[in-house]
Amino acid sequence: MPRPSPQTDRVVTLIGLLAASPDRHLTLAEVTRRLGVNKSTCHAILSALTEAGWLLRDPRRKTYRLGPALIGIGRQAAAGFPALEFARSAIAQLSLELHLHCAVLDVKDDVTTVLDQVRDPAARGIGLHPGASYPLQPPFGAVVVAWSEPEVVEAWLGHTAPERRPGHRAALAAIRRRGFVVELAPPSAAGYRRLLTELDQRLPGPLADGRRVEEVLSELAALADEERYLPTDLLDDAVYRLNDVNAPMFGADGSVVLVITLSGFTTPQTGRQVRAVGERLVRATTELNRALRHIA
Predict the structure, then answer these.
(1) What pTM does this model have?
(2) What's the CATH code, domain 80-295?
(3) Which of 89, 93, 192, 270 sits 20 to 30 Å CA-CA off 222?
(4) Which CATH architecture has domain 6-72?
(5) pLDDT tier at 71, thresholds 50, 70, 90
(6) How many CA atoms within 13 Å lie on the side-chain side of 111?
(7) Beta strands at 242-250 and 181-184: parallel, antiparallel or unpaired
């Protein structure tokens, strides 16, 4: 396991805080409090990042925001994800149309990573954090695993208790039939909601008690796995509390390369409403997949 680097963690956390609320400018006192460091240490970090162009300082208000040097870095990073350029316009349209947060996630090995998100002010919460990674650990990652090779499915199921595996197999089959994933909000897991709140407040840095984000995500997966997180049926008049709705984008080899996610549902949805949202999402990903095939 790599040795922790507190100074690096502070820089990552600071950039994440400013990126999460780009319209908000932070004072030295606010950054000091959020990073949990003394004022002289915080001032040194801010000065170095400002000199590098990663931050801009407003001399009148004495506040800091993201700087222009990150624009070029972001462009170079985006160049490594050509499909992202196609997905950006689609997620903006979906967010505007459905009044939900809409994010695009990259799929690599056994994790998904948030590449970009469009937020809607009417949606609940703040959605996902760009840069955050989530493990393919049951029940998370079903949107990737449902279209994967049998050995990937078996490896994924191997992370859960044997008595839960038949239910997950049924959920994967239902996902393939309808083309999208529905993830429900666990109704009784107070610990789940507490961990989500901690993540919202601390991502992308470590939590206040020193735990790494990866550890907390594993805890979340274990708690969600105890609940009815992946429904197999969507009954027209039944009511569902949603975490999110996901659909895949495919590469030339048929594997899932990107995931489009809708979140921020403010009210419970009927099965009929959930299907309408999922089918709208599938239409968008189908159009994206068609466009990607033309440039492949």
Answers:
(1) 0.69
(2) 3.30.450.40
(3) 270
(4) Orthogonal Bundle (1.10)
(5) confident
(6) 10
(7) antiparallel
